[in-house]
């Protein structure tokens, strides 16, 4: 119920993870249809980039203003930090405060004076500003790290590398918020270079008990995790896509014209293959470099046909080998019989 600085930066990380989820699933998928020249009607979805900008913007972001309050001279308190938020973020549609200049919150009795509220992608969260400045300004002073580095215990010395006199940095140590922001940026950079798979966990109840299913709680999670938009994009789009070359290589044995070798362009070979298999036109579309298949059952059908064809080819290979082996044995026996007969007649 009481959310402070720790929960704020955790929710910031969740926002960044949700942002990369949107980019890699909803945004990237729809942009791929446009790049490939597939006829497509854009599906609207909520992009939480505006919330991420509210928190991490270098000039007007909440973390930037918190750092500014921690570093500026004079009397600095949590209330002065909140006043600064009220001035800079007053008109932001995802920021709410009792002291905000935006009059629509002045009569909101559910929001205490010492709090602010952010409308995250998963719902509204209220934060107590008490302790924000102190927790963000939790610095390890240089003399302390130097003293720990001089310890005789190797583990303690290894835990404070910044205390090494050879690596002294006269700059002010970074705040907790800026360190966390840099860590999140590194995480996002690493995830962007990968091909992540997402598993969305739905909590059926708040009691952590079995056989209890809270409909309202589940619907809330589904709505705010972006699953509805994801399902709409998936249902309107194509379940499977693959470049023409590997697609032709995998399924070419299903068509006499493409088996065993296709001499023309890969796209033309895929068109011949799909026409030969009489797959309905509405089940696939040809992009500039990929074939798009709409329903999974079409892909399952192709896989079943391929499996059956491989069994037939295996049977054919076995039949030809057995025929060759039997014929070779027969010819050898026939040759041996002629030799034996010729020698027998010579001495008869």
TrEMBL record:
UniProt GO MF annotations: actin filament binding; ATP binding; microfilament motor activity
InterPro entries noted in UniProt: Kinesin_motor_dom_sf, Myosin_head_motor_dom-like, P-loop_NTPase
GO process annotations (BP): actin filament organization; actin filament-based movement; endocytosis
Region annotation (Actin-binding) ranges: 184-206
Ranges of residues in domain Myosin motor: 1-307
Keywords assigned: Actin-binding, ATP-binding, Motor protein, Myosin, Nucleotide-binding
Family, as annotated: Belongs to the TRAFAC class myosin-kinesin ATPase superfamily. Myosin family.
Protein name: MYO1B protein
Native source species: Piaya cayana
